[in-house]
Amino acid sequence: xxxxxxxxWLYSFEKFGIKLGLExxxxxxxxxxxxxxxxxxxxxxxxxxxxSVCRFLQSILTLSGYKVGVYTSPHLQRFTExxxxxxxxxxxxxxxxxxxxxxxxxxDMLKNGNTPTFFEIVTxxxxxxxxxxxxxFAVVEVGLGxxxxxxxxxxxxxxxxxxxxxxxQDRLGDKIDEIAFEKAGIIKDNIxxxxxxxxxSLDVINKxxxxxxxxxxxxxxxxxxxxxxxxxxQGFLVNGSLKDYHLKTSMAGKFQGENTTLTIATIENLxxxxxxxxxxxxxxxxxxxxxxxxxxxxxxxxxxxxxxxxNIAGIKNLKNTLEEDFVYEKLILxxxxxxxxxxxxxxxxxxxxADVIVVTKSHNKRACNPSKLKEMIDKEVILKDEISDAIDYxxxxxxxxxxxxxxxxxxxxxxxxxxxxxx
Length: 423
Description:
UDP-N-acetylmuramoyl-L-alanine:D-glutamate ligase, 15 helices, globular, Protein-Tyrosine Phosphatase, Chain A, single chain
């Protein structure tokens, strides 16, 4: 089969949805020879900031001379974005090679009525890819929750839980402490934990960590200070355990202070456990890191901002960043949200600051009908069924001093990048 046919076979498993549990991924990886045991793993969970922390860590470790793999999900535009080694995506040819290797295992599972999920197969492919390429470190992002997420068969050298807020209540629970319990499921016996959680969620994490005799390092707003800020450059002072760091990042949003501080705490933990990492690689790694689709500026005059804010905490961060770091005449908001999200709360946070609102939808089957979004907004709203049409309309009515913000879902942002011809 060619690349398209292999990908079509892989995506045929999406119809089986999400099935939490570790039995199937453990079976697949055992048949592969447990590839995830062949390198050091940093496991990154939490609600928001996971992707940024993963990319900060990869950048720093790569600059320190290590071969580093990063596994994240979902992708924005290309399936190959999920598998990165030293900033390079996996090739189409190697995707075919991995599927050919794993397909006989999956076929046997299907015969026995033990159907794996799309994410489980892709996760096993990532583990195998990293083994094949003989990496030193794998930075592995949790897909959903933590306790029963397919990535949770790794044996990490450090676990990171960025923060905990309401998300996926249909699967993780209706209360913060219930969600925190699922997130804390990635904590392993005697393995250090770095977290930015607070309140009830931190209580849950500390309780589980104590039971598993895992030391916890907690960071909060008191560990960092924003020194300068704007849409394309921010400066932070981060108070680490070993020293203070003056850091710059091109990634917008005051919340990047938390993400950089979590990264520093994780890096210092590695250093204290014998991993050689230079101060230069830390400062340069933070400065060089980018995260497509997250607070990403992709156009000027008018300013065009992409941000895949897809939950309440993400939308709050976006609103605060727009108010604190951007200067514009009109805010033109292009919104596409998935129907299983806290839609009304998200809309109530972001729409009051918009001068023009354009609702639309991605081609994802979970996308909310824009007509429903329009009904839920107590302002005048423009409806465009296609993201490309929504962007064209926004650009047509925008002046050079305006800001077009495209948000609500990573799938919306991914299709926007396609429309804007961004690789």
